[in-house]
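Fig. S4 source data, part A: sequence.
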Amino acid sequence: MANLSKTRTIFAFTSPRTIEKIIPEIQILVDSFKGQEWNTKTQIAFFHKLFKSEFYEGSKMPGNISLAARDRITRAPKALGFVDLKPKISLTEVGKKLLSGKRTSEVIAKQLFKFQLPSPYHKIPLDRGFNVKPYLELLRLVKELGDISKTEIAIFFVQMTHYNKFDSVVAAIKKFRNDKSKHKGNRKAFTEQVFTKEILKVYAEEIKANDLKTRESGEATLSKFVKTKKSNHNDYADALIRYLRATQFISFDKKTFRMIAAPSRVAEVEYVLKTVERKAKGYKTEAEYKKYLFNPDSLLLLTDDRKYLEKQLTKLSVKFASNASIESLKDLLETSEKKMITAVIEKTEVSLKNYKEFDDIIDVFDKIHKKEVPDPPLYLEWNIWRAMVMINYAKLVKGNFALDLDGVPLNTALGNIPDIQADYDGFKMIIEVTMSSGNKQYEMEGEPVARHFGKLQKSSDEPVYCLFVAPKISEGALAHFFNLNRMNTKAYGGKTRIVPMSLSQFVSFITIAKDKDFKNSKTLKSYLDSIIQKNLSVADEDVWYQQIHDSIPTWVS
């Protein structure tokens, strides 16, 4: 049971940040430990299996392994009802649906809208007055306001510990927007002042009692306390957005990047807000709560309504039998929606040709750099895919991220496949993308990038190259790729061909392609070959990276 004796705000599941990443982790848990007790021994054994898996991000084993395992399983997987850990480890009925891979967004939506504070899993002191379903109320807030930013969620929404505070939160956000629009000074500084004021209000009791030490730091000063709480609120806001995004009920405005109700799901959003009880239910026992939480049909969505499904399929000119089951109707609708998303991708590819979207792509890169987009790693992956489609002359440029029905990025590529793959005449290329930096970049990306390269190289009759793009290339990653390119590694199919570029270098790379009318894929292959040849002949990685930088202005001759 989570210890929430000190909590004063709504919290969110920050590990993993993207809910879809729990799916392979749950699979490992039930495949190897089903029927066993969830104790220190199984926790350590589970994490060792997870650490060795293809999709695990990172190369360092945590210091407290059992704690790391609990962090993975007792937060989102247990709290959302996908696994039961007492008396023995087991997969629940909703967990089975999640692992089936069918209509993942629907399964996630049902469980998120069931999640409540307090619950038998989350005991909170009665004097805190919690009575809220956070994801349900955030969806309601988006619908009420039309759009919302991550900052507004961090400052105001996380304070909505009871559903009856909804109107006051709406009023506070509207006042904040109005005051900010009238402010004649630095608006970023104004936002920070408001944020600080709200933090001081929320944690007034702790501050008055001089209880300023946080788990993250031993420093007990007011400034450090406020800074830590702001960081926590921002982390919660980010996680709330990402998890709610997985329902596909919300999307992002393509210009402002503020969270909105998904245009293609408005009827479904309205149905949830109308039919799902706002009040947190009281449960006499944990067993009673589990019965509700584990039942796939204890909360229904509009897509559980036969008439709605038939209406949608008729609108899409999809034929169905009059006696077809609801499940088969859902399958038909899911298949139709996948075709619609494919059509959206094809339309996007056409719009990118001839550099018509060049200015917008550059603008999005600038916003990613400034972290003005809701999910920088996802938007970086998506925007680099757009850029590679834009410079053209590939037979195929496939992004392994997902899009929603409105053409907005939904989630990043899964951990065991490249972010982007491009097929050209005579060669193939993968593009790997990360927002990480420093040692974390090497730990998270060093082995997976090489593994993805090797997997494709060993199965391809044509030479394979890899472009690795990050806001800044770390020393560790640079050295790692420099050496891998120079040595034969059986696991990677021989010598790798990995070319690192910073985001600013990549922007220069595509700008040169536009300015010099790049139109021959042989030119790209020749350039990549020249970079790899330099790798093999220069003294060290710093010299090589400088040569990459110097070569970009003339890569299209």
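Fig. S4 source data, part B ends here. The longest helix spans residues 326-352.
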